[in-house]
Every structure is written in structure tokens, then in C-alpha cells.
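hey so i finally got around to running the thing on that chain from the lab meeting. sorry it took forever, my laptop kept dying and i had to restart like 3 times. anyway pasting the input first so we r on the same page abt which one it is
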Amino acid sequence: MASSSFLTGERAVVALFIARIVFSLPQSLLFESLSLSLLSLLALSVEISVDASASVPLSHFFKTRPGASSGIFLGAVTLPGVMVSKLIQMSRAVSLNQSGSEELKNLQLLYWVTSASCYTVLAYLWFIFYHQSDSKNCATSQCSLSCIALYFGVCCVSFAVESHSGWYTAANLLWLFSHGYAAVKLIQKILHTFPACASIGETLLVTVGLVIYFGDMLACTAAKSHGYFAVSKVVTVPYGIQRSEVSVIIQGLIIGLLVFPMLFKYVLQILERVSLASFRDTVDNHMRRSFVFYISLACVLIIAVPSWMQLVQDFHVHPFLWVLDFVLSEPLKRLSLCIYWLVVIYVSVIRFYNISKSSKIERILLRKYYHLMAVSMFVPALILQPKFLDLAFGAALAVFLMLEIIRIWRIWPLGQLVHQFMNAFTDHRDTDLLVVSHFSLLLGCALPIWLSSGFNDRPLAPFAGILSLGIGDTMASVVGYKYGVLRWSKTGKKTIEGTAAGITSVLAACSILLPLLATTRYVQNWFSLLFAVTISGLLEAYTAQLDNAFIPLVFYSLLCL
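ok and heres what got predicted. didnt touch it at all, straight out
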């Protein structure tokens, strides 16, 4: 019985994913290979300890999403796996003289930041469970402790070998584990602010992603500001590499909107103290709060965010005017694409919203129509206007964030309307407190495209999200729901027929796309492609996590190898 609980389908698929990456690493990335292996073993042992703990259940510390496993193993290795796959790809670029060594060093530092953040959160989880558990001398606890010590040793040796300066090693370790400390505090904050909205693994994925994004912004700001702190000279040099205007605009918008709710909360507290009146109870106060909200949002988006953009990038005009010039630089193609998107969105949303209110169609099938809508919108743009699609994804994510903030705070006049509309498309993974499905679908399609900017010798990699979610996940759900008989497990709903349909449909789509995308020098390794598609399909079948978040990143990582 213990072995059956240990050998779950999700863990087996994740182990195959990590093994494929580790065995693809060149000798020059030996320390990254060792650290990823140790991190995976640590994550697996922590997950086993957490899931098997009867005396101290997970709910004793955190209130996670009902019906989902902890997902620690998958959540802890996904982003480090992505970074290692990018390192392998960048190593090929350096060997072909198509990229400089500075970009490789930048990616290595980003990998270590990502890995150390996951490592610190895992060490924190192990620590709190270890001190509350009755079985402190069990094999998994000893394994976890050994992995924690070995990982830290590998990390220290890696930076010591790169430079014989003790100051360089200490500064980098401080930079790495400051991210880890921030990740621990942030995951605590998210799980307590949004209880029962996500599993530990899902929260870990989001937490580490946010910490990397914020840390990258701080390092870039320090590098561009010619920082006066010595640590900036040691750590932020790789962050000084030239960035595109589009990436700076997206980063500024997203971080500004993520920070805005905290700023708005402080503004309300200050106004309440000054005016000695509450903004919470009466209708008049609700209107005043909404007015303050829109004024504060305008100040952040029009003044604060563009100021940061101009600090880190040499915009000759206001960044939003630059966006307008960028769109109008190819007006026929880009404006036509915008009109096409608006028509598709309007027709689809109105059609599906009416169906959701009056039809008995299963909501899971209704939601898969949006996956097909994503394919029809994004595939033509990715082939014809990839740079414009990057910007469009950032704008769409910013709009989603603003609408979700308005919905959560019930800001007049849109708050209640947005809430009612969103409820028509939610599923068991969404709550009144936080609706995540639309974010996960958008980011699942966008992240592989954003990650593929720069050198990319794998033409299918940018399509990882669109293929796995828009085609594979949709076909698996439709075929499994209508024709599925053989289930992967007695308690689960996923069927073998659905998984087979998803894998087959993605392979068929790849065979159509490859002649359109690949250069004459590129020859697709069909065994590698089959492995990548199969692993992503099996992950969709076995995982109880938010598959829109994990599957595109896993599929992308395997396509980059």
C-alpha cells in the first residue's frame, strides 16, 4: 500500500520530464545538472512527507484548494526545468557563434535564482512539517535533510569555481537566497490572503515566477541606474544586457498592476485617517472609494510606470506613444489583426455567454471552446506578426489584471458586472475570491512565446502553449467526455481515449506546422517530439493541478531540447 501511494502517475511523469532534461545537459552545465537533480529529489521527498503525514495534515498550516493534491514535486521543478532547457538551447547558440557568452551567464544566474527560490521554499516546508511530525527519523526526512545540505554545497562550489573571489561568491549567494527569503514570505502571504484558491504546487509556481520577475526588475533598475552599491556591480552586470522595448513595457505594466492593490489599500487607510471617515459602509463612501481607485490607477499607469520604463530603456517619447507608433508602423497588418481579434472575441463571448445561461452543455466543454478560440486568434498572429503578438499578450494580461482587481474590490460601476460575467465561465478551480482560469489560459499560450524571444532553433517551441492547450487539451476533453470508457484511475475522470486523442491531435498539428516554420537546415527529431507530446499528454491525464499552468511549460521545456 505504501508503494502504491508512492508511485503515483503524476510523480512518474514528472520524474520522466526531469530525467529527459538532466540527460540532455552538456558537461559544461554539470553544476546545474547536479542542482536540478538534488532539487527534484528534495521536492519529491517533501511531497511524500506532506502527503503521507497523518498526524499533521497540510490543512494544519495552509488552507489549499479542495480536491487537489499538494503538487509540490511538479510545482518545484517546472520553472527550474524551463530554465535548464533554455540553458541547453543557449549553449547551442554559443557553440554556433549565434549568441554571446554574456547571455549564457545571464541565463545561468536566472536559473540559480529560480532554483534557489524553489529550494528555500522546499526547505521551509520541510522544516515546519519536520518539527510538527511524529516521524522525524523516517527515510524521507533524512533524504530531505541530505538534499538540503548537498544542494547548498553544490551552489557554493559552482560560484566559487566561476570566480576565486570569496566576495563574488558571497554576494551571489546573498542575491540568490534573498530571492528565496522573498519567495517564502510571498507564498505565506498568498496562501493566507487567498485561502482554498490553489494547491501548494500551484502557489509555488506563481510565487517563484513573481519573485523572479520582481527581482529581475530590481536588478535591471540597479544596473541602468549605475547603482552605488557594490553588490549591484557583482550581481546585476548580466541584467544590463539590451532588452527590447516591448519586454520593458510589458514588465512595467504587469508589475505596476500587481503592486497597485497594495498602494490603493494604503491610500484608503491614509484618507480614512485624515478624513476620519470610512470608505467601506455606505453607498456614498463606496462611490468615493471607486473615485479614489480610478485616480490612483491613472497615476500609476500614466506617471509611475512610464517613468520606470524610461529609466531602464531609452524611449525618445512617452512609452504609450511609442506603442502607438509601433502599431502604426505596419498599419494594414496590425490594425487588421486587431479588428480580427475584436470580432472573434465579441462573437465568441456573446455566443458562449448566452449558451452558458440557457443550455445544459457541460461547462468543461463550453470552456474548451475558448481554447479553440485561442488557436484561431494566436496561430495566424504568431506566424505573421510575432512581435506584435508579444505586445498584444502583455496588453491582454494587463486588462485581465485590471478587471480582476475591479471585480475583487467591487469597484463601481464595473465590479459587480464583471463578477457576474466571470461566474458564467468558472469551474471548480475558481472561487468568488479569485478567478484564475482566464489568466492560466492566457499565460499558458503567452509564456512559451515570450520565452522564445531571442535565439530559438526549435520552431515549434513558441507554439507549445497553443498546441498543448488549444488543441491537445481540447481534444482530450471532448473525446474523453463523449467517447471515453477506459479511465486512467478508478477515482479520476480522465480517460485513455481522451489522452490518445489529445496526443494524436497535437502530433497532427505539428506535422502541419513544421513545413511552414522550419528552415531547410532544421530536421525535426520525431522521437523527441513524440516524447514531448506524450509526456505533456500524460501530465494532463494524471495531474490534479491547474493543467493550463503546467502543461505548456513542461511541453515547451521538452521542445527546446
